[in-house]
Every structure is written in C-alpha cells, then in structure tokens.
Amino acid sequence: MSKRRAIDSFFKPSVKKAKYELSSQKSQHPTYPFPIPYLPDLIQQSLNTASVVEGTVINDQPDLDLLYFQPFIPKDIHQAVFEFLRQELFYYRVQYTINRGGVETIINTPRYTTVFGVDTTSCFGENGKLLDSETKKPILENRYKCRPRPIPQCLSVLKKITEEKTAETYNFCLVNFYADGNDSISYHSDDERFLGQNPAIASFSLGAKRDFLMKHKPRPPSKDHPAKPEVKPLKFTLGPGEMILMRGRTQSNWLHSVPKRAGGEGGQGRINITFRKALVKGGTENYYQYNVGSGNVFRWNAEEKKMGEWTAKESI
Ligand SMILES: O=C(O)CCC(=O)C(=O)O
Ligand SMILES: [Fe+2]
C-alpha cells in the first residue's frame, strides 16, 4: 500500500469495494425492471473450473437420490458471485391468498424471490420475443397469464455448467434470498405435475450457511416395512458454493425445508438458486405467480446493507 493510500484509509471511513468488476454488457428485456449486467469475466473464467468437481451420491435412504457438490462454485469466487447476485437482480416479496377451510387467508412469502424462464412449449427468439417451440412462430399474446422473462446471461452461464455436470437440461431458474434467520421456506416437495415424473432439481447455496432439512413423506405400512415405517430425517448444513441435486424418486417421496434460525448471519443473508424444467404452460404461470406476483420490486441497497423497495426513478 502506498503511503498516501495508507494515510487516506486511516482518516476516511473505508468504503468496502465490491468484490467484482462489472461488465459493460447487460441482459435486457421489456419484462425486466432494470437490465442485469453480464457475469464479470473473472468469475466466468473461474467458474469453468467448477466443471472438474465431482458430486457425492447420497442414496442410502429409501427413495432418496441426491448428488451433493461440496462445493460446486469455487471458493475463490463464491463471495463475488454472491455479492453480484444480491446486488444485480430484482426481487419480490410475494403475497397471495389461499382458501383455508372456506376462509381467505393472506400468505406472506417469508423470503425474497425472483424467477426466469419458460416451459418447454415456448422459447425466446433472438429478439427476446416468445416463440412456439414447435412452429418457431410468435405465440399468441394471451397464451400466458404472466409475462415470462428470459434467463439473464449471468444465470445462463451457471445453468450451462450445471447441465453439463448433472446430465440434465433446465428451462427455469428460481432465486430465493433469505435476508436473515427469520426468512425461511417451510416443508414442501417440488413434485408438481408440470415438472413431469422424477424431476431433477439443482439447488445452489450462496452466502450464509443454513440448515436444509429433509424428511420422508408418511409411508403406509407394506410388506417391506410393516409396523412403523419410519425413515429418519436428514439435516444438511449447506455451506457457501455448495449444490445439491435432488433427482429420481426424491421429490415424490421426500419433503425439504430451510427453517428459520435464531442468531445473526453476519448481515449478508443467503441466496438459493434452483434450476428446474417445466414441461407445460401451467408450470410457467405457477412459477411467476408465486415468485414474482404483482407487488413491488426490491433491490439490495449497498449503503444501507439491506433490501429496499426499488422504483423506476432510480438510475440504472
Ligand atoms: O433455499 C433452499 O435451499 C431451498 C429452496 C427450495 O426448496 C425451493 O425453492 O423450492
Ligand atoms: Fe424446494
């Protein structure tokens, strides 16, 4: 460090420099509130080393088939990828209503979410317009109740490497941001019919460590497992850059969750990225309804170190 810089940094409050250098190229689309920069070159180069890591197969429980990468995203770029996605994506805090025993109840999704992609019946043309996958002609305006968004370059890069490593293809990318230990996802399985039978879901963990719990769905007694067909629950403490691929019979037989947790997380939060493949239009509508919704846009505020509501007035 030069003398001048040493003196400056002694007197000035240090402004933490972002861990990545932005590319001038951006992914743009009329459905995006603001353009999303391409993944910085250095991150892209280093991500390619991810293609050499091998996952561990975990299939020692009934109906379980996991492939666990510890980590998938190389250690040297993990923090930069995390900070980039926290800063450069737009997020939502979705509210929806459900009917519980005849009573309309408002549900507040307890985390920030965002989604990109379209099911296999459509694809994005060069100009960003949606085309019918078979005819390659523009789709009818009202084909979807939502406005599908193409996967931006920064997430497409990761999708491609994931496809190579898992021998699967994906057309959807869902992102969850857990701002602190109060944000969570309750027990569920991603076994919707629109994903087809035995779907493969690649799930990345960035930022703070969180517990990922799995439990078998209730099993009716059978010849193989008579009286008490119990399978013990599992706990994975997912660390920075790790990826867990859930495949085979996992979704149809197991539930998973990220419970709330007491205590801080160094204020940085956690990002989860999942890649999946939706086969029909209903999947697209479902994902946009529950991950974008109709509410405000949120963006990370680097000065205040927290999510804030974003309005179109802000510079882009
Ligand atoms: O955050 C995670 O690790 C899990 C997210 C998840 O299960 C989902 O989005 O369906
Ligand atoms: Fe899930």
UniProtKB/TrEMBL annotation:
UniProt record, GO biological process: DNA alkylation repair
Gene3D superfamilies named among the record's database cross-references: Alpha-ketoglutarate-dependent dioxygenase AlkB-like
Binding site for substrate: 191
A single MF term (Gene Ontology): cytosine C-5 DNA demethylase activity
Source organism, top-level taxon: Eukaryota
Any one Pfam family match given in the protein's UniProt record, by short name: 2OG-FeII_Oxy_2
InterPro entries for this protein: AlkB-like, AlkB-like_sf, ALKBH2, Oxoglu/Fe-dep_dioxygenase_dom
Residues annotated as binding 2-oxoglutarate: 176, 178, 188, 256, 270, 274, 276
PROSITE patterns xref list: FE2OG_OXY
Domain Fe2OG dioxygenase: 169-279
SUPFAM superfamilies: Clavaminate synthase-like
Listed name of the protein: 2OG-Fe(II) oxygenase
Native species: Delitschia confertaspora ATCC 74209
Organism classification: Eukaryota, Fungi, Dikarya, Ascomycota, Pezizomycotina
